[in-house]
Design a protein that fits this description.
Radius of gyration: 17 Å
Strand order of the largest sheet: 2-1-3-7-6
Shape: globular
Helix content: 40-55%
Distance between the termini: 29 Å
Number of helices: 9
Structural class: alpha/beta
Number of strands: 7
Length: 288
């Protein structure tokens, strides 16, 4: 992946210091009112790529603001993140404009070990996450090494997929999908399970990541042979069924929250092949 072609975003910041109160869980928050924390991801089978997207940050108690500073300008990893984020800004800016809307760019906060978000404090073990309460993506760069070591998901485009997936959750927040899903949950629609709301939300974020990749490739022609397979392999590596089988020897569909390996890879490919957000409607799809 010739990611050097990407425009560098100015919305990447480095967190300074540690977090404060701990993750807040309030009434009506998230899927089933329970935050899906993956500190024990290999035990629970949860997806370490996205665990906080459904938190609204309305839990009890005041939150301590996370201080940030400019990231290391000489870091190749930081440069990579800025290039990928910059292109997601360009892509989603164009897509929103085509629909007569304005795309509000999120901040991406890099952290080391621990961080304080408007959704509460989190650690590197949480994995990358999007916090709707402050509309920011949080990423510990060590997770990319963990991806390669634990999930055999290596390569620049696999890492780009991780960032694009989190940006997909930001898009869902902007267009109201997250809020509608939470309302549906409060009406009694199931969150967990193979057909649950959480699975549909996560698969849509995978599809949105594919939509971004489609538009980016058309604009920059930066993918090289094997790059697409890297992203598909990353999506496949973090399916609920695969993670649960690795952790406990069997998959339990009733506890799925993110979709199977096949589903995650297929919905990413759907977005990549079509490049149309309309093809990412996982909430009305009869086949997930």
């Amino acid at each position: 992946m010739d990611w050097g072609k990407g425009r560098r975003s100015d919305n990447v910041e480095q967190a300074t210091g540690g977090g404060g109160r701990g993750l807040q869980i309030g009434g009506g928050l998230g899927v089933g009112g329970v935050l899906l924390v993956v500190v024990f991801s290999l035990v629970t089978g949860q997806d370490p790529l996205q665990v906080l997207s459904m938190v609204t940050g309305s839990g009890g108690g005041a939150q301590v603001a996370q201080q940030t500073q400019a990231p290391d300008a000489n870091s190749k990893q930081v440069d990579f993140v800025r290039a990928i984020l910059g292109d997601t800004e360009d892509t989603w800016g164009e897509i929103f404009a085509a629909h007569g809307e304005h795309y509000q760019q999120p901040k991406l906060i890099l952290f080391n070990g621990h961080v304080q978000s408007a959704c509460g404090s989190a650690s590197a073990a949480t994995g990358p996450f999007y916090c709707p309460a402050d509309q920011q993506v949080y990423l510990d760069l060590s997770f990319f090494d963990e991806m390669e070591r634990r999930f055999s998901a290596a390569g620049d485009f696999a890492r780009a997929y991780v960032i694009a997936h989190e940006i997909g959750h930001h898009v869902q927040d902007l267009v109201g999908t997250t809020e509608k899903m939470q309302a549906a949950e409060r009406r009694g629609m199931p969150a967990q399970g193979a057909q649950g709301l959480s699975v549909r939300l996560e698969l849509q974020a995978d599809c949105y990541a594919g939509v971004w990749a489609n538009h980016a490739q058309k604009r920059l022609h930066w993918l090289e042979p094997g790059d697409l397979e890297e992203a598909i392999n990353a999506a496949h590596a973090i399916g609920d069924d695969r993670l649960q089988e690795q952790a406990q020897g069997r998959a339990v569909p009733d506890s799925f929250t993110h979709g199977t390996s096949e589903q995650r890879a297929r919905w990413f490919r759907t977005g990549f092949d079509n490049g149309a957000v309309e093809r990412c409607d996982t909430f009305t799809a009869s086949r997930l």
